[in-house]
Structures are given as C-alpha cells and as structure tokens.
Amino acid sequence: MSEPTTSNGKWWGSRVKQPVLALHGWQDNAGTFDRLCPLLPPDIPILAIDLPGHGKSSHYPKGMHYFIFWDGITLIRRIVKYFGWTKLTLLGHSLGGALSFMYAASFPEEVDRFISIDIAGPTVRDHHKTAASTGDCIDKFLHYETLPESKMPCYGYEEMIDLVLAAYEGSVDYDSVEVLMRRGMALAPAHFNKEGYHFARDLRLKVALLGMFSMEQVLAYAERIKCKVLNIRADPGMKFDNPEVYKNVMEVLKRTSSKVRVKEI
After folding, report:
1. Is 106 in the active site?
2. Is 36 or 234 the better-scoring residue by pLDDT?
3. What region holds the AB hydrolase-1 domain (predicted)?
4. How much is the pLDDT for 237?
5. 115: β partners
6. Hey, what CATH topology would domain 9-264 get?
C-alpha cells in the first residue's frame, strides 16, 4: 500500500485568525513569499503552501500525472474543508494566481477576494500546439518517472544557485534565489551514491502542461467570479503566447466582480 501524500507550507502570524492562503508559481515553492510576508501588516496571518510535487510537499506516486490546475484547486478545497474556513482571501503568483482565479470561479460564494500577481487567469494554449506536443509530453513523463536515481542530476551549492539564477534571466537576484532554494533543493540522500544537491520538486512537473485551457473556457470561468480582485502586473512583466488573454479576462472581471483594481509596477 502506498504512503499517503502530504502537503507542506509556512504560516506567518496568528494561528487563531483565518489566514490569507498564498499560492506560488509553477516549479517554485512557498519560499516565494518569504521576503514579502514580513513587509505586510503583522495582524494579517498568511499560510503559504507548497503545491503537490513542489518544495517540501509529497511527490505523487508513480503512474500519476500532474494536472496542475485541477490538482491545485482540489488542494485548496481540501485545506478549506480541513480548517472550516469561510470567505477566503487568496494570494497567488503566476500559477498560484491562476489557481486563485479558478477557485474563485468554482466557489464564487466562498471567496471574498483574491490578489493575483503576474497573471489574470489560467494559461491559454493553442489546440494545435497541444495536439502536436502530446506524444512528446507522454514520452518525457515516462522518461522522468523511470529515471534511475544514479542518473538524477546533482549539483554543488553554488552551482545550483547559479543554475537557477541563469534560468530566471535576471528577473530575480542572488539573495532571492537563495531564499527560494531553501525549499527548492535538498541534499542528495546516501542511496544516490553521489554528493551535492538535487531539485526538491518532482521532475514530472516539467511535463505537467497537458490539460491547458481554451480562451472560451477561461472566459466562461471569469464570468462566474463575483469577489473583489486585485491584479498586480510588472512592466514589462511575463511574456505569454497569447497576450490578449490578459486583456480579455480583465474586461470580463471588471463586469462581473464586485470590485477590480489593477496595479502595474
């Protein structure tokens, strides 16, 4: 019998008050909020979670795909039911912002507000690109799933930090990468038979992009959102295959939500 999967996270502030639920981006972790939370009012508790397969949360058993949107909103629902929370406030970066959007659309009477950073809603992907890449995604998934531990890439500490720093292409600094990698890397266990650090996230997350949305689906979800929305976007910010999605989603939210505020920084 397989072991149950567990979710991990970090809680700032009072354990008595209902917290803001903070959700990180794809292949990041709860450390995303380490430098933000101390700057917020101390009377606002925040719970940042590691999404499934990320940070210190469990990896899924072999044979299971990650469907990052559905996995994410299901996890939020589990947490809400466990604690018995009502009228949620959600804070999300990138994928976390998309999950906040999806949850607010799925349970429109139960969300008071959500704050989304860098994104308006779920990523939209062209149907033809999805069809063309499906076979490759499945083969990569099976490759990562059967990769022997002896082949698992390991790095020295500085090498790991530099690797991640280069991947962000200047959008984060060295100190921020160190903060993020406190939960994003782990010492190679003895049975790896090699020294150094490996990425803590599940390698299979790299091919977790099946099950993307069409524009029509995203706008249908946007129509259901009633809560207050704060959208924070960097200038120039992230680049997407379909930049018109942001504009279209925000137009719907301004019509359906109780209050919408957009802030560019």
Report:
1. no
2. 36
3. 19-129
4. 66
5. 91, 230
6. Rossmann fold (3.40.50)
